[in-house]
Design goal:
Keywords: Coiled coil, Transferase
CATH class of the largest domain: Mainly Alpha
Shape: globular
Protein name: Prenyltransferase family protein containing thioredoxin domain
Structural class: alpha+beta
Oligomer: single chain
GO molecular function, one term: transferase activity
GO biological process, one term: carbohydrate metabolic process
Number of domains: 4
InterPro entries: 6-hairpin_glycosidase_sf (IPR008928), 6hp_glycosidase-like_sf (IPR012341), Ssp411 (IPR024705), Ssp411-like_TRX (IPR004879), Thioredoxin-like_sf (IPR036249)
Mean pLDDT: 94
Low-confidence stretches: 709-716
Helix content: 40-55%
CATH topology of the largest domain: Glycosyltransferase
Number of helices: 27
Strand content: 5-15%
């Protein structure tokens, strides 16, 4: 029988990232038992390379090393080379990235790791050039030296000892939990304010965002902390830093001013030049933060960018049947050279703008507004940044402001059409359950906040897509990835938690109980597969899943929100609808990690939001009606109500009986019990801080009660 490592097996995979490497002379293997067994049988190390399809330096390392025949000969002879798509296998990525960060103090992709046949790492790094340069060892020489050391008994013993130490360190960081302290309690809402205070200390008050240098990342979870802390305390500085960050992101190069949507991050302090890939999760979480900013400030620009971003997603990242694709690459073909270059699809020169726009004034206005200059801001070209205000341009060109705005809008339309003729960046068309959950939540929130049913449809279509293709009704289990009919990988905590939050948001936006029922099903699997009652924590990988060298938790916020934090907050939201004791699980997780949150709240923004949700309780808005009146929807759309939970129910108890049957409940939960419509009219019941208002038919009365200093003293 042929050894699997005698050929490159990535042509059997559906991951676009893995298939990008299917023609390499390196005999790449997917992460599976065949490859791992081959390493044990051959008694050679594993060379593990982790990346993703939109990763610029992953492409560079492929071009320099993995496509090189001489490099491939050394790698194939001395290692079992395994290629992993980090978006499909975040569990594998988490373990070895943690080791890289512990050992080197930094991380990133491509991640390069050499492992024992048992999967324990003994050498780690990120990008390596083919030949040594600028203090970096060359990849080819490194492979030779590692192979020689492996064949030396003394050196191998040292490598295996190091592998044991590093694996133990990763296990301590990722898997272990603190010993229980008698009489301990979950953290209070103080951790939310601590996180917000830390945000103030690290805020760049000149350029927006966090940190005094580049690169600048969006950090939407921290922005949500600032919003809720402002709502809790009224401290104006929290609101100011939130708005400064949002303003910087929507004005600078992070945002695609021609086509909508956000790039991954900016390489500089002032948000001018982005790293050009577009990730689904950024285009979910940043608009969600903008919706929060819109409700707090009424700034129409925030709402406008949300609309443009969701239009971009609908146009460029949506499967014909409704699910959302994962990424757009940073690189695309430069028509002038035929080479693939970063950002070439998005950047402009003044000459290119003038070629597209017939009117000289229109071209000058666009270049002045969006910083398109002869010198450029990116390799001799310009990534548009919105730098000149409309009133200044109106004065300079002796035009009415409305005329300037219309000219710029027409110019953007023309440039968008011209840009569409350029070679496009590649699209990673795998559909990930968790990432879809993030955007489903945002679309449902946009429907509630902006009053557009199209966003409800967008959310529901994606939820149905994921449910039909990735949810197994018989097994009650979720898979992570769908690609062209192929389903792969058991769902992780983030898949269940993010999708449960999205399903709950769809229930809030539509009042349809089937979405609530699905959210509850997902919540129950979280308890069965991820909750460890002995250690009182939630793990990232399912109990029934593959056993790796350690079982990670995800407590801090990364490029996506903490899976544990979203799970805890979602379980708290679902607790009021079920006889399952979700609150006890959420409380125990927060209690287990209380010291971590109290000592470093800033790195655990989503868990801090969950801790605040536990102490404060949700703002429960029970709506007893066939459908809420339009004035109710408009009134709530324009107000930020932190921790808000819309609990729709039928107007009569007879109608509620059918819902209880669908949810498998014998009795109505407290959030619905005794809350039928009064006098045959739609009725609101509002609770905050576990104190409730009287039922009312008037939404403004309910809002006045919510906004009172002490709801218990409100005049009813």
């Amino acid at each position: 029988m042929d050894q699997p490592t005698e050929r490159n097996r990535l042509d059997e995979e559906e991951s676009p990232y893995l298939r990008q490497h299917a023609d390499n002379p390196v005999n790449w293997q997917p992460w599976d038992e065949q490859a791992l067994e081959a390493a044990r049988d051959r008694d050679v190390p594993i060379f593990l390379s982790i990346g993703y399809s939109a990763c610029h330096w992953c492409h560079v390392m492929e071009d320099e090393s993995f496509a090189d025949g001489n490099v491939a000969e050394v790698v194939n002879e001395n290692f079992v080379p395994i290629k992993v798509d980090r978006e499909e296998r975040p569990d594998v990525d988490s373990i070895y990235m943690t080791v890289c960060q512990l050992v080197s103090g930094r991380g990133g992709w491509p991640l390069s790791a050499w492992l024992t046949p048992e999967g324990k790492p003994f050498f780690v790094g990120t990008y390596f050039p083919r030949e040594a340069k600028r203090g970096q060892p060359g990849f080819l020489d490194l492979c030779r030296r590692i192979s020689d050391s492996w064949d030396s008994p003394d050196d191998r013993a040292e490598m295996e000892h190091r592998a044991d130490q590093w694996t133990s360190a990763a296990r301590d960081r990722l898997e272990e939990t603190p010993d229980a302290v008698r009489g301990s309690a979950p953290p209070t809402s103080e951790v939310l304010e601590r996180a917000a205070e830390a945000a103030l200390r690290t805020a760049d008050r000149q350029h927006g965002g966090f940190g005094s240098s580049g690169p600048k990342f969006p950090q939407p979870s921290r922005l949500q902390v600032l919003a809720r802390a402002y709502d809790r305390t009224g401290r104006e500085a929290f609101r100011e830093v939130l708005c400064e960050s949002l303003d910087a992101m929507v004005a600078g190069g992070l945002y695609d001013h021609v086509g909508g949507g956000f790039h991954r991050y900016c390489v500089d302090r002032d948000w001018t030049v982005p790293h050009f890939e577009k990730m689904l999760y950024d285009n979910a979480e940043i608009p969600r933060a903008l919706l929060t900013g819109y409700q707090l400030t009424g700034d129409e620009r925030y709402a406008e960018v949300v609309r443009e971003t969701l239009e971009f997603v609908e146009r460029e990242l949506t499967h014909p049947d409704g699910g959302f694709f994962s990424t757009l690459d940073a690189q695309s073909e430069d028509p002038k050279t035929g080479e693939h270059e970063e950002g070439v699809f998005y950047v402009w020169t003044p000459a290119e703008v003038h070629d597209v726009l017939d009117d000289e004034t229109d071209a000058e206005l666009f270049c002045a507004r969006y910083d398109v200059t002869e010198s450029g801001n990116f390799e001799g070209t310009s990534q548009p940044n919105r730098i000149r205000p409309i009133d200044a341009l109106a004065e300079e060109y002796d035009l009415a402001e409305a005329a300037v705005e219309q000219r710029l809008e027409d110019a953007r339309d023309a440039l968008f059409d011209a840009r569409a003729e350029r070679p496009r960046p590649n699209r990673d068309e795998k559909v990930l359950a968790g990432w879809n959950g993030l955007l489903i939540t945002t679309c449902a929130e946009a429907a509630l906040c902006l009053g557009d049913d199209a966003y409800t449809e967008q959310a529901v279509d994606a939820l149905e897509f994921v449910r039909e293709r990735l949810w197994d009704d018989d097994a009650n289990r979720l898979s992570r990835r769908y690609k062209d009919g192929d389903v792969k990988v058991d769902g992780y905590l983030e898949d269940y938690a993010f999708l449960a939050r999205g399903a709950l948001a769809c229930y809030e936006a539509t009042g349809e109980v089937e979405y609530l029922a699905f959210a509850l099903e997902l919540g129950r699997v979280i308890e069965v597969e991820f909750w460890d009652a002995d250690r009182e924590t939630l793990y990232f990988t399912p109990e029934s899943g593959e056993s790796l060298v350690t079982r990670p938790q995800e407590l801090s916020d990364q490029s996506t929100p903490s899976a544990t934090g979203v799970a805890v907050e979602t379980l708290l939201s679902l607790d009021g609808f079920t006889s399952d004791d979700f609150e006890s699980i959420a409380s125990a997780v927060l209690e287990t990690h209380a010291n971590r949150l109290e000592s470093n709240a800033f790195e655990h923004a989503t868990l801090c939001l969950a801790a605040d949700r536990l102490e404060a309780g949700p703002v429960e808005i029970t709506v007893a009606a066939e459908s809420p009146p339009e004035p109710w929807q408009d009134a709530f759309a324009t107000r930020y109500v932190s921790g808000r939970l819309f609990a729709h129910r039928p107007p009569t108890d007879d109608g509620l009986e059918a819902w209880l049957g669908e949810l498998g409940l014998e009795d109505a939960p407290p959030i619905w019990a005794g809350r039928e419509a009064r006098d045959g009219e739609p009725t609101l019941y509002v609770c905050r801080g576990r104190t409730c208002s009287a039922p009312t038919h008037d939404v403004e009365t309910a809002l006045e009660w919510l906004e009172g200093d002490d709801p218990a003293d409100a005049p009813f």
